[in-house]
């Protein structure tokens, strides 16, 4: 209900802005632009570090598709909640099969932002993020082997996972990048000026860290109650059954991230700051930081871990989960803001 109310109020304000801008443009004589229309010639300017942004959004889109389909299978009863092995297997299989999504999305965004090093984009999209996660997995597994834990993954299984990564996931990502690069570049509704517009000094509450802290905690607030039950299931070996409610919370997270990112982007453009791309990613992607902070609080208040390897294992996997949440929520925020910016600037009359 709160999301619908906020979205309705925001749409009414936005429609009023568009009608006022277009009415001024239709009048005789010149009318000085103001508000977010001032940055129409710079809003689609390629952001700094476009390579990293495209890779993160591409891998976040892959994780988002994996999580959505896995939850859908669990909701309709294809996966049994009591069989964790089947759930893990399906999750890994879907992640591998959706490698083409990461390549396609990354290539499209990189080409839209006028990137020239497309070979690096193809290789890094297929190897960078999965390689980082797999490296952390290997390090944590060494701790399990050193501690003599039965939960340590055998060497043969490690080789099988690496084979799946290099023989299935990476080639699918390259195929997706190929089709993404073959597509024509996304054309923007407004032309980009030759000289960048100077960004006026911004108030402190529009700083990137302030917006990240505010946007991140709003996105985290939509999931933190369910996160408690998920962590109980993970670390106390309890069976998690309420996948229907989890799927609803997942949808609520997507809606919340989209609305928060769009609102913060709107306020940023109204203050004549057109560098929205990274801000859209970090404003809601910072929810991963709150997930890790919550994991630290959970460790102190709920767990009783007395040895160093177990504590290292807990914080290592908590860090991986937090990074994955950052990629998913940040990708949702960036894609939502991209669609929003293209829609609103295509609705106004500009010279």
Automatic annotation (TrEMBL):
Principal place of residence: membrane
Subcellular location: Membrane
Name of one Pfam family that matches: EMP70
One GO CC annotation: membrane
GO biological process, one term: protein localization to membrane
Transmembrane domains' residue ranges: 55-79, 85-110, 122-146, 158-181, 209-230, 242-266, 278-300, 312-341
Keyword vocabulary terms for this entry: Membrane, Signal, Transmembrane, Transmembrane helix
Its membrane topology: Multi-pass membrane protein
Keyword Transferase set for record: no
Family: Belongs to the nonaspanin (TM9SF) (TC 9.A.2) family.
Name of the featured protein: Transmembrane 9 superfamily member
